[in-house]
Amino acid sequence: MTLSQLQEVLRECAGEDEASMAVGLAPDQTFSDLGYDSLAILETQSRIQRDFGVKISDDAMQDLKTPKALVDHVNSLLDKSI
């Protein structure tokens, strides 16, 4: 998973706004600082699980506060499934 792919998922889950454009520019900022609320993050979690075939636990998701952390976690799960 790339930051661009995450940005697209967030855009589809949370709608089009300025925050969705910032993911690639500020991968280490928290989702809340980027303007994403908990509902958008839950929808993103569900969408990633469906689209990428990985299971992100709710506990793990609470710890994944930034786009980079989420992308790295998803990629680690994808590596384990190969």
What does this structure look like?
The protein has one domain: ACP-like (Non-ribosomal Peptide Synthetase Peptidyl Carrier Protein, Chain A). The protein has about 80 residues and is mostly helical. The protein has 5 helices and no strands. About 65% of the residues lie in helices and about 0% in strands.
Task: Compose a concise summary of this entry.
The chain is mainly α and 82 residues long. It is built from 5 helices and no strands.
Question: Top keywords for this entry?
Answer:
single chain; 82 residues; mainly alpha; Non-ribosomal Peptide Synthetase Peptidyl Carrier Protein, Chain A; 5 helices; 0% strand
Low-confidence regions: none
Instruction: Indicate the multimeric state.
Output: single chain
Order of helices and strands: HHHHH
Roughly what percent helix? Answer: 55-70%
CATH architecture: Orthogonal Bundle
Query: How many structural domains can be distinguished in the coordinates?
Result: 1
The dominant shape is globular
Biggest sheet, in brief?
A: none
E-strand count: 0
CATH superfamily: ACP-like
Number of helices: 5
Span between termini = 14 Å
Q: What's the CATH topology name?
A: Non-ribosomal Peptide Synthetase Peptidyl Carrier Protein, Chain A
**Rg, Cα atoms, Å:** 11 Å
Structural class: mainly alpha
Beta-strand proportion:
under 5%
What is the CATH class name?
A: Mainly Alpha
| Average pLDDT level | 91
